[in-house]
Amino acid sequence: MLVPPWLERLLNTAFFSICRTHGDAARSECNMFCLDCNADAFCFYCRSSKHKDHQVIQIRRSSYHDVVRVSEIQKILDISGVQTYVINSARVLFLNERPQPKGGKAVSHVCEICGRSLLDTFRFCSLGCKLVGIKGNGDASFIIQGISASSSSNYNQDEEELRDGSQQDIYPPTPPPPPSTSRSRRKGIPQRAPFRS
C-alpha cells in the first residue's frame, strides 16, 4: 500500500464552509480533517465533541488554496519530493495542484505532473501531484515506514541545516552586480520638500 486510505478523501474535501451545527459560533469554519473517521471537514467545536481522541489535522489557507503545516503532516505521511513554502513563519505544503500563470521565464525545476515551476529540486508541487505520480509510476510513496535509514538521516540533516540558517547549498548566493562605468543615477543630495504654512 503506497497511499494511506484517507489521503484521497482529504484531497477531495471542500474546506472552509460554515459548520451546520455550530454556524453561529466564532470558530465555525470547517478546517479540520479526521484521519481516523475519513469523513467530511468539521469545525473546532466538532473536534472537541466528536473527534477528541482522533488523529486530526488542521487545514489552512494561503492565497485561496488549501495548505497544511509540515510539522503536522510529516508525522503521518512521507512528504519527500513535495515543494514546501514558508508562509507566516510556518513551513507548509499545498494539498492540491494550483493553476500556473501562463508565460514567464524559463525555470529549471518543474512539477513532474502539472509542470508548475518549483523553487528547488523537488519532484511535485503538492500532495495531489505526488498522489498522481505514485499512481502513474509507483516510484514514490506516502508511507513513512518505507523510508530507509540513509534517506531518513539525510532528511534530518537537511532539516538541521534549515534550522541553522545555512542554506548555501539550497539557495546559491546572489552574484554581485557587474561593475558600472557610468555615473550614478542620483542627481544630487535629496532634499526635503518645503513646508506649507
UniProtKB/TrEMBL annotation:
Q: Which residues form the B box-type domain?
A: 14-59
Task: List each coiled-coil range.
Answer: none
- Report the Gene3D superfamilies cross-referenced here: Classic Zinc Finger
On the tree of life, the source organism's domain of life is Eukaryota
Q: Check the record and name the InterPro entries matching this protein.
A: PLATZ (IPR006734), Znf_B-box (IPR000315)
Q: Where is this region: Disordered?
A: 153-197
Tell me which Pfam families the record gives. PLATZ
Q: What is this protein called?
A: Protein RGF1 INDUCIBLE TRANSCRIPTION FACTOR 1 isoform X1
